[in-house]
Amino acid sequence: MVNNIVVLGAGVSGLTTAYLLSQDPANKITVLAKHMPGDYDIEYASPWAGANYMPVGKEGSAHQKWERNTWPALKEITEKYPEAGIHFRGTLIYNRKKDQESDTGKWFSELTQPNPWYKDVVPDFKGVPSDQLPAGVDNAQEFTSVCINTAVYLPWLVGQCVKNGAVFKRAIFKHIADAANAHHSGQKADVVINCTGLSSKTLGGVLDEKMHPARGQIVVVRNDPGPMMSTSGTDDGEDEALYIMTRAAGGGTILGGSYQKHNWDALPDMNLANRIMKRCIEVCPSLVKEGQGIEGLDIIRHGVGLRPLREGGTRIEKDKVDGVAVVHNYGHGGFGYQASFGCAYDAVALVNEVLQNKSRAKL
Ligand code: FAD
């Protein structure tokens, strides 16, 4: 029995789902997308991400399960496939109670609390003794996490899928059901997996009004401060953030950031860029030489990406649109990488339910 499957979208969600499905030789997969790895576009979130694993899902939620289930896969890829562009990195988290009610503080509330669920998931978790905390920091913790060079990892995923027989094609669809007619076999696809991220807001047959952007601005520099770090907030604004991460395999260091809900602006705001660089140096002076300010940063580029945030959470669900079986996997906000495998496992389980129903119908 052959299964004709279309994956619509080639960001981390589409590629991870296609990668898992491609491991079954019965699945004949076409990945269709407007943007592919190598492109940088405001409609394509994945290349802009740091990306690292800093869990934010609330204890007991599906989000927590997805993040918990993703760590073993990222760890295995990091250990087994250095060419995937992921490395282990020490991580330091600072929490200030005064950030609790800000947008950034709420986003990071699970990450920054002193006794989080993920302490049993990531290696080397330990609290920083209170006499070693910097002024203004209420609690802090350290652990080992991963940092993903998205410019290497996304093409690596494409390579794995191609090796397993998947076919990649550029295409733009106005309606999700049309994607079923673009399978490389020429036959109609048995199922379409919707991994279109923020575009699910405007894609015909989906039109999800719960989708909105959380704008993230970054500065990529050549400086390498060592460990990754993040704080619960900043004194520069409710929707500004502070994080530092050096990507694997020469990917540079990402200085972030912002979490600006409903802001669609694709251009970097240079005032915000200055604030990002200044506060990163304040909290991590080893970014530059002693006595230097932002002039000590060697800038590669400024960037803006739109996190595909969904009110009510990520949508992983079966659907039927104009007679076409659809499985949705979109709305991953600022956690698309750190929840990628957990979400894709659930999406694949739903695809398998659709395919089993198809087989039963044919008997
Ligand atoms: P996208 O990457 O946006 O991909 C959507 C795909 O669908 C594209 O291929 C697009 O071309 C295609 N598509 C859309 N509409 C159509 C159409 N009509 N026809 C054809 N193709 C279509 N996450 C983490 O886990 N860790 C981090 O450290 C992290 N840092 C981040 C930092 C920044 C600055 C930003 C912006 C995001 C960050 N994220 C992070 C979040 C992460 O990047 C996103 O959650 C993730 O990239 C979403 O991936 P996606 O595949 O769902 O969507």
Automatic annotation (TrEMBL):
SUPFAM superfamilies: FAD-linked reductases, C-terminal domain (SSF54373), Nucleotide-binding domain (SSF51971). InterPro entries: D-amino_acid_oxidase_CS, DAO, FAD-dep_OxRdtase. One of its GO terms (molecular function) is D-amino-acid oxidase activity. Its cofactor is FAD. The keyword Transmembrane helix does not apply. D-dopa binds at residue 334. GO terms for cellular component: peroxisomal matrix. Its main location: other. It catalyses: a D-alpha-amino acid + O2 + H2O = a 2-oxocarboxylate + H2O2 + NH4(+). Keywords: FAD, Flavoprotein, Oxidoreductase, Peroxisome. Residues 5-347 form the FAD dependent oxidoreductase domain. FAD binds at residue 196. GO terms for biological process: D-amino acid catabolic process. Its EC number is 1.4.3.3. It is an enzyme of class 1 (oxidoreductase). It is found in: Peroxisome matrix. Belongs to the DAMOX/DASOX family. This is D-amino-acid oxidase.
